[in-house]
Amino acid sequence: MKVQRVSFGTNSNYEPQHSAVQKRNEFLYYPKQKEEKKLKSVIIKFLGSLAAIAVGVTLYNLKRNKKPLSIVDIKGDSMGLNGINYKRTAKELKKKILYPIKTGLTHKKKDFNSGLILSDTKDKPLKEVLAAFCEHAYQLDIRTKEIPEQLSKAERRKWVFNTIEEAQEHYKKTNQYTIINIGNLDNLIDLKIVKSKNSAIEDKLIEINKNVYSGIVWAAWTNNTKSIPMYYNNLPVLVTKLVD
User: What is the pTM of this model?
Assistant: First the structure.
């Protein structure tokens, strides 16, 4: 409410010196203009509408662009990563490798890894988990290649080189990823924490992680946990232990 001071009576300068009645000031009260109220109401409604529209657009974009992690789930309790005891590892492999591939976020998602090294002290669980990972990918219609068991070191290296070249050509033609299981990393690379020079096969794998060869994820395991080269820390390579 606005308050404006007003006076009542004559405008005489005469005032009795001994008057028993004190001079009174009167005030006139009147409401704010209707136009001000209306303008304020319109502004509030307009801002509220803008906020509602913004929320609606955000929810729509999230719903349209973000797919649930269940997109990389498969049926069968014993199939793929469903059948391993390392549930946290299974979730990590789904979230950081399989999910970006299935949703096409490989070049947008910062934590996407184009290389995988599973590490633990025992060979058997490492082989089983990596095999389960490849089976899970296959069930999701992700192309997989696994290195044959009985090959010499020279043959293994040749197989890896040829498979990488073939996988890249396949990606150029079809835009389809290939996961290459190269098995025991120690059979291909001389693992050392710090190295002055990399081998040709190491440089080839690094080129994948630098997107020189696109559309490829290589996966390996090692029980030589204390000798994994430090340069993998600066590459999009997921080096992870088996965790329940």
Answer: 0.73
